[in-house]
Specification:
Elements lengths: L20 H11 L3 E7 L5 E6 L10 H11 L10 E4 L3 H10 L3 E8 L4 E7 L5 E7 L5 H16 L7 H13 L7 H12 L3 H14 L3 H17 L3 H9 L10 H12 L3 H12 L7 H10 L8
Parallel strand pairs: 3-6
Antiparallel strand pairs: 1-2, 4-5, 5-6
Helix pairs in contact: 2-5, 5-6, 6-7, 6-8, 7-8, 8-9, 8-10, 9-10, 10-11, 11-12
Length: about 300
């Protein structure tokens, strides 16, 4: 069934058992603003109220998506298997109202890379809630903010101790990248690299170059891609790439260090040592000329590709 196919389901109704129906009505109806559609009394103390909650959708998410959303909406708190999300016009105001009505604030409102303002709470009856406000189409300035928010979401993956989990989250973020250049491929390639998936990483690096990168990322990609090529046994390609790689202050002498490693892997050990020493010499407080001269004596000429 697709979006254009009529659904066989007429309505989604979420049934929540609460200990105190009146307290729950004060929270969901009065504080959150849901409209009471109907209420019924049954035998004994049986009572039920049905509240209108706008459009109903069922969101199905795999573990990687859930972890990624948890990282965006909270500071590390994990989702329950069932979490109820309400779209509202003013997420910050409704969040404050629900907190004032007895909800536990899990995470205050924060903007996601896809321009929604999300907060998370736990209701008095224990139900995990998300409030979200759609912020609309981005202006030129907002588009810059959207890219910044996306990069922050990527940066929050640094330091996590589950490389394959990072790859799963990065795949989701890459699919939601708001730009048109190769940054998403670059970041996904780095995640794949760190998880030991070199062949996939190489393909992502190639896509990143084809789509275009800024000078800093292009310099970093040259290092990472060359290292990946070396690990894949494509040593000569790594040497060619590093020999022509752009310099950038963000990578320091990394180009020369990785070139030395590639030359060593290719059996060109004297050239490898010379390259490493020539990269080291400028950092020495003394003996720079001596080290440079000794390095030059290792080969007849500077390392050639």
């Amino acid at each position: 069934m697709t979006a254009s196919t009529p659904s066989a389901v007429r309505q989604l109704r979420l049934v929540v058992q609460v200990d105190d129906l009146d307290a729950a009505l004060r929270f969901y109806r009065d504080a959150l603003g849901l409209t009471e559609r109907a209420a019924f009394d049954g035998d004994g103390d049986a009572r039920v109220a049905i509240l209108e909650a706008g459009i109903a959708t069922l969101e199905l998410a795999n573990p990687a998506q859930v972890r990624m959303i948890d990282g965006l909406e909270t500071d590390g708190d994990t989702s329950d298997p069932l979490r109820v999300a309400f779209e509202v016009d003013d997420a910050a105001a409704v969040t404050a109202a629900l907190a004032g009505a007895g909800a536990e604030l899990v995470a205050s409102s924060r903007e996601t890379p896809w321009r929604s303002l999300n907060s998370r709470l736990r209701s008095p009856d224990g139900l995990q809630l998300t409030l979200f406000e759609e912020l609309g189409a981005a202006s030129e300035d907002d588009a810059d903010d959207e890219l910044l928010l996306w990069q922050r979401a990527v940066d929050r993956l640094d330091g996590l101790e589950d490389p394959d989990g990072v790859v799963e989250r990065m795949r989701v973020l890459a699919a939601r990248y708001p730009g048109t250049d190769g940054v998403a491929h670059f970041e996904l390639g780095g995640a794949l690299d760190s998880a030991g998936h070199e062949a996939e990483a190489a393909a992502e690096y190639e896509r990143a170059v084809a789509a275009g990168l800024d000078d800093e990322r292009l310099a970093r990609l040259s290092i990472q891609y060359a290292s990946t090529l070396r690990n894949l046994g494509r040593t000569e390609e790594a040497i060619v790439l590093l020999s022509s790689a752009p310099q950038h202050p963000s990578i320091g002498a990394a180009r020369e260090v990785f070139l030395a490693l590639a030359l060593h892997s290719a059996g060109r050990t004297d050239e490898a040592l010379r390259t490493a020493l020539e990269a080291l010499a400028p950092t020495l407080p003394r003996y720079r000329r001596s080290v440079a001269a000794y390095a030059a004596d290792l080969t007849d000429s500077a390392p050639q590709t």
